Structures are given as structure tokens and as C-alpha cells.
Amino acid sequence: MNCQLGPGVGGVFSDRHGGTSRPPFESMNLGAGVGDEPAAVTANRELLASACGLQPGDIVWMRQVHSADVRYVRAGQTVGPVDAIFTDVPGLGLGVLVADCLPVLLADPVARLVGAAHAGREGTLAGVVPALVAAMAAAGARPDRMHALLGPAICGGCYEVPAELRAKVSAAVPACWCQTTAGTAGLDIVAGVRSQLADLSVTAVAADRRCTRESAELYSYRRDGRTGRFAGLVWLLP
To answer: What is the edge-to-edge ordering of all strands in the sheet holding 102-108?
Structure first.
């Protein structure tokens, strides 16, 4: 899915089609840490970069650890354990890898700043998206001028958790509280992140509403177990 986050900003969410990986990662797996052949992952990342008009070396990938840590990045950097990154470098893609967690893309087209966050359950609880908004604001962005795009993620109707875990998360982020379609305790991470953004005056929020578990064209760890990762990617146009 191609998308825009305001003038001068490019963004995309990939799916699992059009790559080189073999089962169970077929075929556009972009995750380097899931057991896929490294050569296939490299080829897939090159295909993604080419489709976006970027050079393969001009995409920064995070080593995601379900934290609320944020880092500013430039071209050529290796990004260690972190779950949100931002930049003001034109033509530098920021990638976030998911297979049920929520990929969040942010941009302030006026300040010429873009960011990407990996918002899983623990990251949402820790406040990774508010942390990214704050870091971008400290660099010159304005929350009320930001555009946010929420990518595909597991929906609340499919995300069953123990009642105690739901209580813990919803105590910090009340909008995450939900019931699954089976009537059991659930978490709605998309609703939780939407509420966090609204609390920060980020109101230009759009979403790809596909549920990863329900959508065969997307990777889902909850559905498949051993599987690949698709990506959200954001960059400043030259």
C-alpha cells in the first residue's frame, strides 16, 4: 500500500507478495532475524528500495526490542536496540518490521522531519509513540502539524490476552481495553495508539485497517507462528 503523509513525504506498507523467500516465509519477507535465508532477505530489501525509488543502502532498519527508545539517524548508521527512529535526511528510508504489532509512520512536512515506530503491546504500554512525537518535537516538529499513518496490525477482535494482562495495559492506556469476537479479554493496540496521539494533539491520523491475522496477504505471527515480516517505510522526498 502506497501512501502520503503530507507534501514531500513518501510512505509505503509492503505485503508478503513479490519477493524471493521460500516457505514458510514466502515471499517478500523483510525480517533478517526470523530464520529466512540471508540472501533472500537482502534481495527482498533491494526490491523494496527499488520500488520506492531508494538505494538499498538508504534504508535504516531497527533492531526492535519492544522498548520506548528513540534515536535520530543519518545515512549509513547501524541502529542497535531501539523501537523508534527519526530523521531530517532526504532520501533516507526509515523501516519498521512487523507481523501483528503496529507500524506507525509520522511526518511533519513543514519541519521536514519523519519518523517510524514499532508499537507492540509492550511498546505501547511503555509509550514508544509518544516518545517519538516528543523527540521529533524537540528537533523542531509540531505535533499539531504532524501526519500519522497507522499500518496493518492485529485487531482487537483477534488479539486475545489474559484478563490480568488486559488490566495492566488498559490501566496505562485505557483505549486498549476490548473484548475479542469470542467474548474473551482482548487488547486493541490501534485504538490505544490513536488515543495517545490525540492526547498529544496529533489529529491528522489515517490508518490501514487490515487485521494481520485476518489478511492472508500479510504476515501474522499469531496466525502462523514461524513466518516473515512486512514493513512500514517512510522517507523525505528530495
So the answer is: 70-72, 84-87, 113-119, 102-108, 147-150, 204-207
pLDDT tens figures, 123-150? 999 999 999 999 999 999 999 999 999 9
CA distance 185 to 149: 27
Distance between CA atoms of 119 and 126, rounded to whole angstroms? 9
For the cut 90, the answer to whether the pLDDT of residue 60 exceeds it is yes
Sorted by sequence, the CB contacts under 8 Å of residue 86 that are 6+ apart come out as: 70, 71, 72, 73, 94, 106, 113, 114, 115, 116, 132, 135, 136, 139
Q: All domains of the chain, ordered by start, with CATH?
A: 2-154+203-236 (3.60.140.10)
**pTM reported for the whole predicted model:** 0.96
Backbone angles phi, psi at 198, to 5 degrees: -60, -40
DSSP character string of 69-98: -EEE--TTPPP-B-SEEEE--TT-EEEEEE
Who's near 231: CB < 8 A, 6+ residues apart? 13, 14, 30, 48, 95, 96, 97, 98, 103
Q: How far apart are CA 61 and CA 234, in angstroms?
A: 11
Alpha-carbon gap, residue 184 to 186, rounded angstroms: 6
For all residues of the chain together, what is the average pLDDT? Answer: 96
Cα(167)–Cα(200) distance, integer angstroms: 23
